[in-house]
Amino acid sequence: MSNVGLLYVGAILFINGLMLIGVIPGKSAAILNFFVGGMQVVLPTIILIQANNDPAIILGAAGLYLFGFTYLYVGILQVTGVSGEGLGWFSLFVSACAVVIGVIQFALGDAVFGVIWWIWAVLWFLFFLLLGLGKESLAHTTGWFAILISHLTATIPAFILLLGRYESNAAFALGMAALGVIALVLSLALGHRARGTTAPATSATASIAT
């Protein structure tokens, strides 16, 4: 994935997480979704034009499209009021692709990004449960997980890559996996806590579905 694109994945996951827990209105978040989604459709198209049929470059571009289409879809939902079931089922497709790309990253010797792609697969599966299956009780859990992993899996690795200091190794990969599990456990706890407050879960879901 493009280092610059990865940096903005961190930004948009953070914003969309805040939207899901009700901190940011959906229409406000839509603007950045259009910016980042557009960037992650235009950039991989340019990359593919210049790829010269290089399989590694094409694989990286394919991953960018998965993110770009998601964010454009989110932005469109905010401004049109269309329900989110289509995005939910698309998220299931993204989740499955992320699992496969993670396996490929392991096969290519990059265990860290193998783990990162699997963490993203969990997040997109939560989007599927929330929007595709209407599991509104998972709204805050999904939002908090997006917030917690936004910088863990995107912003921080992007800066490491931009500085030329990235090195994939077993210790780094295990640490990333452990932090991903901790983020999921914390998100489940925070989501359970939110369900006990006066704000209904449907209000967070509505921010992305309408």
From TrEMBL:
Name used for this protein in its record: Transporter
GO cellular component: plasma membrane
The entry's keywords: Cell membrane, Membrane, Transmembrane, Transmembrane helix, Transport
Pfam families: AmiS_UreI
Family statement: Belongs to the AmiS/UreI family.
InterPro entries: AmiSUreI_transpt, AmiSUreI_transpt_sf
Organism superkingdom: Bacteria
Gene3D superfamilies: 1.25.40.600
Cell compartment(s), UniProt: Cell membrane
Membrane topology: Multi-pass membrane protein
Transmembrane segment boundaries: 6-24, 31-50, 56-74, 86-108, 114-133, 145-164, 170-190
Main location: membrane
